[in-house]
């Protein structure tokens, strides 16, 4: 029997706004499967986003959903989680939203190790505003604001998250659809800041400018550019040149922020 | 039993007022001269089971406050000048998404970094217009430590009742002066909580105009699943660009305040009954003005003080009435002329209107006001 996504999607809210071939729909289905796998009570689940194509996702999902301002999702989510530590908090958004305008909130949410799952859909571009380069656009690539090729160095979002203190960091791609739910579910179950980077594709504003002739080409790129962490351990540096690792990249146990704050309350109340 | 009495700084009084009002969340970023509000709440909030978080910047601070409020907590942030400017975008978010939050702005000079430890009344127009788009604004402007306590409680009440951001505006002089503050007993001051929905969870619409001008707000996690966005939205909370829905939403959000001005407005008048000259002053400036009125009365000059405690919405009706009664209105402000434009808007041609302005980090003293009164008479 086909998987029942319908029960997780708000009636009357589809079709979604994403372009044909965009990977965000694959991620949304993965997120739904992950929430189901974790048996989340949707009335106790907050899904928070900023601005951009990916950030429109919460509107389609049946839960407590919060579509905020550009870049601020992690900070709004921090307030929700602090006020209601019993809620499951999931942040969804794009690379520009999360690591450019929202970079400060992103790294500090990682530093605090607050219990939320941040799903970053990294398609290397600002899609909604028409294809301007983002902090993850590869150097040299074309975007609407890099007519001579992107001069900027790029962020590795997963490394950024690990460096900033997130205690669960995983990466996969829209091509690896069956891995998405497993990694998000593991992130949801993890007590602390979980970052799931999903490299996906924007055929309309990135692919078109960067000589990908079709969505299939873009998906093929996602397949070819990645190596699972387990396989990578057996590969040479030359073989790994230009490859991106997928799977759980980092995991550690460290005190979670709202739990730590509960101890502050107990100290203040003289317990 | 005698009431609890303490010698408190204005900023401390604000923090204690917030606790009295039922504040359970503070998200802030340190900035002079507002910092003591955060410092006191970092100690007081956990005692009542509340949460304090020092965020990474001012934008994160107000974002966390909006998130906490949506999750059901009364929530506060405190800032000054440049921090207020950083919060502006999300004040607009709280306006359109109708989220009750309270923002304290302890005013200093400016623009930019200006004079961080000097007083100013430089953000009164920022309080009214400081976000993009059309929106209503409520701001209160206490002038003493006791009043800061009480107006902080009222600011929370207004935020919860009208489901919107409310600002508490006072200048550094009031924020840092120390005065006797009497703590009201529980129940002595009214404390209002937002109205919760009574409809079944599946029928809940967070912006349903049939539920009144201020539709009830459910809390995340309370069993209601709904969508909140900064986009223009239909009554169910989902984005729309339908002209009639967008127009109706924006107009309702302004009307919910402007139809209740009488209830929101609060002023103090001193010796205005027979006054020939009205000194129109708020915050620390009003304290110099009151002194000046007393001195002028001793000399037989009929001066009076009009002190708006609610700064926004602007006290149009009473200001216009006083302008018809008096020969002149004097507007002393710690800026180069902001509120005077509003006084002129409602009272021009009725009497002489003149300002006294300082931006040098010094207060406007009673002598300056007395001199000007004598000039205009």
UniProtKB/TrEMBL annotation, chain A:
Any one Gene Ontology molecular-function term assigned to this protein's record: thiamine pyrophosphate binding
UniProt-listed InterPro entries: 2-oxoacid:Fd_oxidoreductase, THDP-binding, TPP_enzyme_TPP-bd
One Pfam short name: TPP_enzyme_C
Residue intervals of the Thiamine pyrophosphate enzyme TPP-binding domain: 51-198
Keyword Translocase: no
SUPFAM superfamilies attached to this UniProt entry: Thiamin diphosphate-binding fold (THDP-binding)
Keyword Oxidoreductase: yes
GO BP: any one term: cellular respiration
Keyword terms, alphabetized: Oxidoreductase
Name of protein: 2-oxoglutarate ferredoxin oxidoreductase beta subunit
Source organism per UniProt: Geothermobacter ehrlichii
Lineage: Bacteria, Pseudomonadati, Thermodesulfobacteriota, Desulfuromonadia, Desulfuromonadales
From TrEMBL, chain B:
Any one GO MF annotation of this record: oxidoreductase activity
Coiled coil region boundaries: none
Residue intervals of the Pyruvate:ferredoxin oxidoreductase core domain: 275-368
Keyword NADP: no
Segments forming domain Pyruvate flavodoxin/ferredoxin oxidoreductase pyrimidine binding: 16-249
Pfam family, one: POR_N
Keywords from the UniProt entry: Oxidoreductase
Protein's name in the database: 2-oxoglutarate ferredoxin oxidoreductase alpha subunit
Source organism (scientific name): Geothermobacter ehrlichii
